[in-house]
Amino acid sequence: MSKQRTLLRGGTIVSMDPKIGILPKGDLLIAGDRILEVAASIEASDASLVDATNMIVSPGFVDTHRHIWQTQLRTIATDWSLFDYFVQMRSIYSGFYNPDDAFLGNHVGALEALNAGITTVVDHCHIMNSPEHSDEAVRGLQDAGIRGIFCYGLFENPENWATTPTVLKEGWRHDDARRIKQEKLSSDESLLVFGFAPTEVTATDFATGCREIEFARELGAHRISCHVSMGNYDAGVEFVRQIGEAGLMADDLLFVHGSTLTDTELSWMADHGAAISVTPETELQMGMGNPVAVRAAEAGVRTSIGIDIVSNYSGDMQGQMRLLLQAQRGIENARHAGPPREIRFKAKDVLEVSTMGGARALGWESRIGSLTPGKQADIVLTRCDDINMVPCIDPVGALVLNANPSNVDSVYVSGRQVKGGGELMHADWPVIRERVRRSSERIVNGFDSIDRRAIEDAAANLMFTDS
Ligand SMILES: [Zn+2]
Questions:
Q1: How far is the C-alpha of 209 from the C-alpha of 203, rounded, in Å?
Q2: How far apart are the CA of 67 and the centre of ligand 1, in A?
């Protein structure tokens, strides 16, 4: 039986493939799960036709770092420092999540990402309060139909405040991670694959960090997601240097934040193919230093963008691209004695980071990241006839500096349409929305019942040595 074919006709194609470039008016043919052809004009009489007139056709965005489970705590972290985040989110709120909350957070978070044109996401998932949480977190992503890596988090959340603690033997997460890999995510060719997130490197000794990385490799984790070099929060630790010196640096390491990575560390990463996920909004808000994206890219490191926490920020790539672009321009402009004559960091550079950059960081550059024939059909159609998009003189500028998720008309993942006509498909949103509201209310009420002073004191002793 021939593969189902869909022809996207007459759009402005921003391919992110240097051989194809930008086609002011072009066609794209999808066959099954792949892109078959991209050209100024394609004849395919047997294909179902999608009119892409007045739309930009571009590759799906790749978000390389998100804690998706926090979706139903949206806006909780609006004015938080990293200290607040550690005390409130990681030490209290997380303990009130039951397995259904883990499902909802991950499911709705993945739908939110798809709605915004993010077709691939790395879930750094540290909401494993029990094996049932792991099952439900995975199911939340799989049911949404998003591509990605589920990074099993070892971090030990506090005892579940909400229910009688389940009796689980010490170290159970190691066994559970192995079970998830073997039973749920055994294939590296599936839409969702297995990854690993060690315990926070600042919360354990270096030998433990090394053992956890080796364990992830033993399990066959596709990527190992690790928060590092967060400005004054882990000053002097230089975990990446230590990893390099210990002979553990490899291309399966996906470091996150990294604002204060040294030149030596960046060169270790570049030499071994390790990647960085820059999360501009977190780094700027929480005092981690300036985003390292341009320094890392110039050092030859595989550089990508993550959104991190939707308990604070909006979950779309358009906003993060804009923030990264202008933050970097601000840094560079401030170095000039006078007004800059030229702006060095361009919109096309940040669009590259959010598409092909993400693909390279995940080792999937031959699979996703550009509209290249033979690659997976992960495609976004952005409307250019909305009030904030007319006229569309520079399509790259329009995607980076004008567009928001409401302009995303259609989204395809692996050739399957998940959004069309501006609406998510295959999702009963009114029903899910009410479940999210109830889940959120219960978790927030639980938090309000806790006296957090002792937890704050303990965290302050850990984080602020002079306090
Ligand atoms: Zn993070």
A1: 10
A2: 6
Q: What is the mean pLDDT of residues 114-138?
A: 97
Structural domains of the chain in order of their starting residue, each with its CATH number: 5-59+371-424 (2.30.40.10), 61-361 (3.20.20.140)
Give pLDDT, residue 280.
96
Q: Which residues pair with 379 in a beta bridge?
A: 59, 412
The pLDDT of residue 408 is: 98
Model confidence band, residue 363 (pLDDT cutoffs 50, 70, 90): very high
State in Å: Cα 226 to ligand 1 middle. 8
Whose CA is closest to 255, among 241, 189, 246?
Answer: 241
Question: Which residue blocks in 145-205 are alpha helix, DSSP H?
Answer: 172-179
pLDDT confidence band for 454 (50 / 70 / 90): confident
Which of 340, 357, 344, 269 lies closest to 306, judged by CA? 357
- pLDDT at residue 467, rounded to an integer: 43
Instruction: Report the pLDDT value the prediction gives residue 158, as an integer from 0 to 100.
Output: 80
* Cβ-contact 258, 248 below 8 angstroms: no
Give, for 252, the enclosing helix (H) or strand (E).
none
pLDDT band (50, 70, 90) for residue 167: low
CA 237 – ligand 1 centroid, Å: 18
Instruction: Please give the structure tokens belonging to residue 272.
Output: 């071994």
Which pLDDT score is estimated for 169? 80
Nearest-angstrom CA–CA distance, 448 and 450:
6
Ligand 1 center to 97 CA (angstroms):
18
Q: Residue 22 C-alpha to ligand 1 middle, in angstroms?
A: 34
Query: Does the structure show a pLDDT above 80 at 138?
Result: yes
Neighbours of 262 (CB within 10 A): 12
What is the C-alpha R_g of the chain? 22
Do 255 and 123 touch, CB atoms closer than 8 A? no
Q: Is the peptide bond before 391 cis (omega within 30 degrees of 0)?
A: yes
> What separation in angstroms does the CA of 408 have from each of 204, 389, 402?
42, 11, 12
Q: How far, in Å, from the CA of 150 to the mean position of ligand 1?
A: 14
